[in-house]
Write a structure and sequence with these properties.
The structure is a homodimer. Chain A is of the alpha+beta class. In chain A, 33% of the residues lie in helices and 34% in strands. Chain A has one domain: Chemotaxis protein chec, CATH 3.40.1550.10. In chain A, the strands form 2 sheets. In chain A, strands 1, 2, 4, 5, 6, 7, 9, 10 and 11 form a 9-stranded antiparallel sheet that branches. A two-stranded antiparallel sheet of chain A has the order 3-8. In chain A, helix 1 packs across helix 3. The longest helix of chain A has 24 residues. The radius of gyration of chain A is 15 Å and the shape is globular. The interface between A and B is large, with 38 and 38 residues. Strand 8 of chain A pairs antiparallel with strand 7 of chain B.
Chain lengths: 156, 156
């Protein structure tokens, strides 16, 4: 299959954060994360299904990075991870997934999205048990780092 | 909508653990967990989509509870959470979801499943941002506790 499974998530991440938080995150090189993604302080995740592909999208933020993003979104200084931040991460996850979904549909890959979940807590690991690997893109912003990871698996 | 969204997950959990680990877990009363589920040592989660409903399934195990379950599955004493345990939790999550999916299909609710993810780490919270609530079923076994939670949201 020739679909670009990473670019649409990278593009959607840049677009959503530029629009919502007036910050343009700089993507690093995508990498195979092997079996584990270490969670930052707040992680949004959402499942994806289609007749020919299944997987998940994760956005995991360092504390300072997400506090700065939401402070920009809300136009006021947010100092701690609270319910508003949780909701914002869920919404950002949903929007990034929706943007990637539209771009993937143009490549002929049509997805349904489950509902986003948000997990808080540092020093967790996500360990993925699917046969496919985790591919992640590190992003940097002036204020901190975050990571976008996908586990999409396409049946040929 | 008249679908029973909880019973199929309860039934599938009992069936899968009885078959795989020769232990019959005893379900407690389902409860509305509000916004958060506290994760145990290992948590399996999977997204669900359908034209009319979206959500997630989570199975979260205390350490002792999952070590005993996998020890029974493998027929040898497993003393620590390792990759085999991670894989087993992913597989259990997948099978419970598949069982519930079949029963829900009989009610006319057809789901697609994303791929399972497994998260390790105690003292995490899952904070759910969907409009629907988390409904969870506590289970007890002779060896420990675990919890099955769903966030299914049906569009009427």
């Amino acid at each position: 299959m020739g679909a670009d499974l990473i670019g649409p998530f990278r593009n959607a991440t840049i677009s959503v954060l530029s629009t919502m938080a007036a910050t343009v995150p700089v993507p690093g090189e995508p990498r195979q994360s092997g079996d584990a993604v270490h969670f930052g302080a707040v992680t949004g995740l959402i499942g994806l299904t289609s007749p020919t592909a299944h997987g998940n999208l994760l956005l995991t933020f360092d504390e300072q990075s997400i506090l700065n993003v939401v402070s920009r979104m809300f136009g006021e200084q947010i100092l701690a991870i609270n319910q508003e931040v949780i909701d914002a991460v869920g919404e950002i996850t949903n929007m990034v997934c929706g943007g990637a979904k539209r771009e993937l549909a143009e490549q002929g890959l049509k997805f349904d999205m489950a509902t986003p979940l948000v997990v808080t807590g540092n020093h967790l690991e996500l360990l993925h048990i699917s046969k496919s690997r985790i591919v992640s893109i590190p992003f940097s912003t002036p204020e901190g780092k975050f990571e976008v990871a996908t586990t999409l698996e396409v049946q040929d």
